[in-house]
């Protein structure tokens, strides 16, 4: 029966049509295809309806790409794409693999998320618990988290920092001795990976002292790059062989074995009356103090987990901070000259003397350089949180349970009302007590806020200041600018895409 305008087809004829077109299909196959197509269509329509229902009036795409959402953008994150999302509204919506996400771009909403443990908990990235261990203290919340944190705070007192600063100075000078190109014609080289190793070696010696051998720090540093890559915002989440998450799990096991050995050796040394020489030693000293009333029975594995979390918190964030610190100083020779002048004044010509906390207290300009460098290029631009209870984030809108909320730091740190010429590297803004920067401390979200605010703020700032201060004395710097020098690569943290190419030559003092 022909189909035309004057002869409408019956339902039965229409159902038979595919068979006449595709004669190899049976009536049953055709029915199955129609049923499957109807189910898929219903699911896709439902997906869009759920997304629209959750989104309500928030800015964001009107429709989400079926199934994957913004997955492609997440696979290749860029500051430009993040800026588009932030600029779309104080709160905006998106979806990745049917995970509904609300992104905050203002200081008010970002701080609200960070300070609302009743409604949201840090989840970092999907694979974080697989890599860092779900029992890691960083994933604790509520009273349990507060009590654990109270113990760990004691590892970053001024007394403890005084112990660490000498280790930092010694390890930094050891690495710098190998950085210099001693050939007749020194060439610029990327410092990204050697700065990462300097940072890892320093952190491991501060945390573990000599309780692990030298080759362990190199092995952990080499393997840790797998962990960094697996903690990108989007990765295949299951640890199947060959995946980034699988490699990260193997790297985590190697690091944990070494860290557990350090804990074991530290306990033995401290029980034998040794003086503390590192963070774990200080922890054991505190636990052995008869006046200490807190928990004392930490297993080697628990101690290793804590130190591993410290590495996670410090390694890539501090490495990013150091690399951009070098780049900022190289690109602003007038600032580097002021750093050197301050070093000469405080040190009174003794450039070989180890850094002390008292020295750092007398270097306000160097500290301002560190603070400003971290503001201009914050290592961490955002931290994903999981909504554990329907979150009334603003009047008229509640983030559904199971969604993600992401407080963003970059917009707060580049607010032109707080930081005039926000993209300009200007340490002097921190030296004026009445500046808008100092008058608005809530905007300085480099270290987060709330119950999960960074534990090691003073430690990390001290390390950056020490490394940059020593480098300013030891080296003349030349930054080889490339087309990628100012482009940002977002891995777990921010890095210059060309690895920050530097030529470092020994500096002579008059």
UniProtKB/TrEMBL annotation:
One of its GO terms (biological process) is sterol metabolic process. The lineage of its organism: Eukaryota, Fungi, Dikarya, Basidiomycota, Agaricomycotina. The keyword Cytoplasm does not apply. Belongs to the cytochrome P450 family. Heme binds at residue 454. This is sterol 22-desaturase. PANTHER family: C-22 STEROL DESATURASE ERG5, CYTOCHROME P450 26. It holds the Pfam family p450.
